[in-house]
Amino acid sequence: MESNRSFFVQLQVLTKRMVLRVVRRPLAELPNLIISAFFLFVYDGALGGVFGGSASGTPFDFANGNFINFILPVSIVSASLSGAASGIYLVEDIESGVFKRYQSMPISRWAIILAPMNVGALRVLLQAGLILLIGKFIGANPEVGNVGFFIVLSLAFIWGMGFAGYSVAAGVKSGSSQGAQAATFLFFPAIFLAPTFVPREQLKGWLETAAAYNPTTYVIEGMRSVMVQGWELDTLFRGYLSATSFAVITLTLAVISARKATEKA
Amino acid sequence: MLAVNVNNIKKTFVTKQETVEAVKDVSFQVEQGEIFGLLGPNGAGKSTTILMLTTLLSVTSGKASILGLDITTKDKEVREKIGVALQDTGIDNLLTGKELFFTTCRLWGYSKKDSEKRTLELLELVGLTEAADRRVKTYSGGMKRRLDLGLSLVHSPEILFLDEPTTGLDPGSRRVLWEEIKRLRDNGVTIILTTQYLEEADELADRLAIIDEGLVVAEGTSDELKASIGGDVITFSFENDLDLKNAKNVLYDAIEDKGQLRITVEDGAAKIPSFINDLNKNGIIVSSVSASKPTLDDVFLEVTGYRLEGSAGTDSSNELEVK
Q1: Spatial contact of A258 and A113, defined as CB atoms under 8 Å apart
Q2: Ordered domains of chain B (ranges, CATH)
């Protein structure tokens, strides 16, 4: 029998294996998938009446009468945090000893590390895509046209990979899936110390300062720019810059921690 | 060429709290095509030795090679030659046996077509064809061990490392696995296995090393080790603790073990009457006495000073009991 050990084949095989794991425990995965959609409905139901069409012509009209356009990025950013599952998948393999089995074989260590991140990326795309579909269905209509949906999705993807890197680094460092899970609590300051429900100009005091230093702010504003304002290239650029910088930093941390994890003791 | 050549390897773990010498000095040689057993209790250093030899753990000092390849400088090449089934190696419970074999074949570089073929061969080899499409979480402990063994054979390794392959299995499953291990040996695979079961070492290993506290304390074939302590083992039991205590002053060379005294002598059955006479002269009442050929258990006791937990004691088939 011939043997051909390509990095890409190994990555594809390991990713497929992990996808099978995800698909075979739907009860563990489905709640995460639908929670962002649930919050989209809650935000729209609770706040749409105040900030929606009835606010037209008042200072509370943040989105030209279409509150869904304004609030959709918040749900998308929440959904993109599902990339954090990558760290949990990797640590599960470490805890179960599967990681050690792969280490005893001549497999690329990068393939072992990248496979869960691939699955995290797929989750982000699936979850954010689902929210966008629901948003479209209930009235989201990007100011720049449908291309706006793809811009929002691409920002969500980069942001999600940033969280994937963060969770891998935190998971490997803590050495337990509970540790990786606990690390996702970063979600709360990330999402709520930002212009989540009102534009940044409306924030006051310490929250305004915290939001200015929170990279999530710029990602949400980048998404909102195409959904509400139209082509504001500098806002969009800041959004991409913020998401990409976060992803580069956390992925570097993930690589460093993963390298340590695969080194011989 | 030797299959495995280990010379004075040592492993020390240094943490902030303490320094632990898990393996102090281990040396042994394994010929190609033999089953070599590492026998010892938990914490003796068996698994650490295996982790070093399988390139999963660095060596603090000393040298070891697999088929002439240095485990430190040629670790990638070593991994090509070996199959590994470790005690704490994981199996993905959410996949089926067939999917696991197929995935492992693909990772070893087989094409899809070859992977399908090899998967069927291996399922047959380890007797899991009927359970192939069931998720592994539904497998019994014995089936999981056979699956683990099969996964370590995907690339037809020349040397197989098995770390406590039958720990936790029922006697029936253990015997099935033994037969499979022997069959592999008969097909030319060199096998290094660790075990804490004397019976397993006796049954499987062509040669074995007894490891205790990170050191090899005895090495040879099972028969050589038994012969090394010489003669027969006579075991005395007493009515009470006082007799036991007094008897130790009469039988100077005896070793106390579980409330009994054991002494190793040539032609044990013939010498029993004179021992009993000596004890009786000192007012000591012997409640029972037996003579038997030495077992691995006796060898272990002789070289370490204690018994392996759960060991059977003397070989009853040769026992002569006197009341």
Answers
A1: yes
A2: 4-220 (3.40.50.300), 230-318 (3.30.70.790)
* pLDDT string in tens for chain B (323-residue length): 899 999 999 999 988 888 999 999 999 999 999 999 999 888 899 999 999 999 989 999 999 999 999 999 999 899 999 999 987 668 899 999 999 999 999 999 999 999 999 999 999 988 899 999 999 999 988 899 889 989 999 999 999 999 988 887 888 888 888 998 999 999 999 999 999 888 889 889 999 999 999 999 999 998 888 888 777 888 999 988 899 989 988 888 888 887 889 888 888 888 889 899 999 998 898 999 988 888 888 888 888 877 776 554 434 333 333 33
Q: Does B320 touch chain A (CB under 8 A)?
A: no
The span from the CA of A2 to the CA of B147, in Å, is: 23
Report yes or no: B139 and B131 within 8 Å, Cβ to Cβ: yes
Q: Distances from the Cα of B282 to the Cαs of B156, B246, B285, in angstroms?
A: 65, 8, 9
All residues of chain A having their beta carbon less than 8 Å from the beta carbon of residue B82 are 104
Q: Which value does ipTM take for this structure?
A: 0.79
Q: Is A42 on the interface with B (CB under 8 A)?
A: no
Query: Scanning every residue of chain A, which has its alpha carbon at the shortest distance from the alpha carbon of B118?
Result: A1
Residue A260 contacts B, CB cutoff 8 Å: no
